[in-house]
Write a structure and sequence with these properties.
Blueprint: E1 4-10, E2 13-27, E3 30-34, E4 41-45, E5 48-54, E6 59-64, E7 67-72, E8 75-80, E9 83-87
Parallel strand pairs: 1-8
Antiparallel strand pairs: 1-2, 2-3, 2-5, 4-7, 5-6, 6-9, 7-8
Length: 88
Amino acid sequence: MSSLTVDLVAADRVVWRGEAHQVNARSVEGELGVLPGHEPLLTILGEGDVTIRGTDGTSHAATIDEGFLSVDNNHVTIVAEHVTVTQA
């Protein structure tokens, strides 16, 4: 099964980096789900929750303020000024 390489980054630190099967976030246009093979994308995120389902079966959740999300070649980058981990 394919996977995503994910970087969740706050202004001052890398919050989470790893392999995942799925990433969910809230863009300014609505909820967004990213799976392996997703088309390239760059979108603005609104304040809300980000959920990452790791390849090891774990789930990681965080709340972010505004930021952006990019997808390219199964690499997801999420950048926000503030990130609060709600579930590791």
